[in-house]
TrEMBL record:
Origin species: Prevotella pectinovora
Protein name as annotated: UPF0145 protein ST44_06125
Family statement: Belongs to the UPF0145 family.
InterPro entries recorded: UPF0145_dom_sf (IPR035439), UPF0145_YbjQ-like (IPR002765)
């Protein structure tokens, strides 16, 4: 399935718009990840632990909108937008919101 941020897919005309699909994924960054990120922050450099949390949340959000699109008869999703927020006490959780339009190409 093609999932894209663009409003159309070159070479694949949209035959039918099925509707908006959304996904909200909330994932915790546990104490061990926080500790390791704190060490990385102290010494500098990239935080692979948090990058993995972001990648996992983004992957899950894409898979969910893909499944929603299939459920309503779509075979592609266009106009995808991603939004990231921190939630929970102490902002210890990451929320990824993903939305787009399911289409038939």
């Amino acid at each position: 399935m093609i999932i894209t941020t663009t409003p159309s897919i070159e070479g694949h005309p949209v035959k039918e718009y099925k509707g908006i699909v959304t996904s909200e994924v909330i994932i915790g960054a546990n104490a061990i990840r926080d500790f390791m990120a704190g060490i990385r922050d102290f010494f500098g450099g990239r935080s692979r632990t948090y990058e993995q949390v972001f990648a996992e949340a983004r992957f899950n959000a894409f898979r969910e909108i893909e499944q929603h699109a299939v459920n309503i008869g779509g075979n592609a999703v266009v106009g995808v937008r991603l939004s990231y927020e921190t939630v929970g006490s102490g902002n210890s959780m990451l929320m990824v919101v993903c939305s787009g339009t399911a289409v038939v190409i």
